[in-house]
Amino acid sequence: MNIKLWAWTIVFILIGGGIMFYGMSYNPLGWFQGFVSFTEPNDEPIPWGLLVIGYIFFGVIGTGVSTYNSLYELFNKNHKGKNPFDKIKLRNEWLAFAVLIPGWIMVFASTYKPAEALYIYLSFRDTSRIAWNGVLYALVGIGIIAEILALIGEKIKEEGKRGYLDRFLAWLSSKTSFEIPGLLKIVVDIDALIVGYAILAELILDANLGSVFGYLSTWVYEFGPFMSILLVVASFYAGIAMISFITPLYSWLRKPSVVSPPSAQPIATHSLGSGNVEPQEDNIMFKILARDGLLATISIGFLVLWWVWLTATNQETFPWAQLLLTGSWSLYFWIGLVLIGIIIPIALYSVAYKKESKGWLFASSIFALLGWFMLITIADVIPQAISWYYSVSPITPPGSTWAYELRSNFNGVSQFTQLPFAISQYDLVWFAGSALFLLGVYTLGVLLLPLEEEEKPKHVWIFK
């Protein structure tokens, strides 16, 4: 039994769950009745607060982890020795599932009346990108769970013997009306199809999230496809960063304390590796993560440059470019995104690649995750940060209620005003609680499921 992992799991699930419970404690019955939200309604001029930023932040990380891991799995299906993540691929998929959990939580917590929001799906409107977000989140979750089952079934099939998990499944199947091992066999037989489906659903979700922001009324038409591309690339940027954060951390937490007696035959331990991964394979894995993280960060840098160029060279969006480059958001842009999110990760990933170092890789991932948070915050807030002044047109067509035209600069007044952005205390409560909760959920899966090569759960009573 790994005391560190058990302590981590219990502490973070209790703390994260407790914080979220505090966030809804003032009126939980009102939420179930559809009268109030989990959080205080955000009545700021920019209504989309931290929870909307949060569900995109975690959702894109989760899809990125799964897509990145699945692509290596799919293209090395018949050559597993070439897949650097083969021994931890199941663990990576569980990580993707765990990261999606706070995204799902914050989707409902950010809704003004979550219970009433169910009508979006009861009377589904196929022209609503928001409604499609909910459907795609569910489809992605189904795909990841199916991948996890397929990988577990593949492990049972490869072992060719009945272990703890297989005996548990046999016991469970005797208590139910269906044969779980048989279903697992079917899942294993179509695992390539499942992986392909999961990748497709994840990429569509990322693109749809981008389109929600790209087609806001404050953007010109060109930003619709651009924002979809940005979030698809950002899924790799953020997903690789999350794997690069968790894998070294997991390696340090899982270091065994067994020491071989001097006179005895040396015992093969993996104190320098990530779980059951040999140190040599560990270094190769870290090097590939550093290489791919470097490429993803360079791609994000190019897209950010493209974004600024599009904004600054279009007269309709030039005011937003001013906010980014020289206005009130310039510090967040230049320090938070360009320096912390792009320049520093490029430098650190390069060193990690050269030295095959998990320490440098871990440091790189922290800056990349901070950069991803700043990127999605800016992409969320900037399109809404300006409110144009309008006047009733003197040539309003008969029967029309309103017709709008921009005020002219010649009348001596500004055409627009900048709207403030604020984060409520309950937004912070839910974001922090969800982030801590996902860490506990991740290690709970590590403890309950055989997430690594040749690993069986030996210390959990339900598998004995």
From TrEMBL:
Keyword annotations of the record: Cell membrane, Membrane, Transmembrane, Transmembrane helix
TM segment ranges: 5-26, 46-71, 92-110, 130-152, 183-205, 225-246, 293-312, 332-353, 360-382, 428-449
GO cellular component: plasma membrane
Domain of life: Archaea
InterPro entries listed in its UniProt record: Electron_transfer_protein, NrfD-like
Membrane topology: Multi-pass membrane protein
Keyword check for Calcium: no
UniProt subcellular location: Cell membrane
UniProt cross-references to Pfam families, sorted A to Z: NrfD
Main location: membrane
Presence of keyword Repressor: no
Family (UniProt): Belongs to the NrfD family.
Descriptive protein name: Sulfur reductase membrane anchor
Source organism (scientific name): Acidianus ambivalens (Desulfurolobus ambivalens)
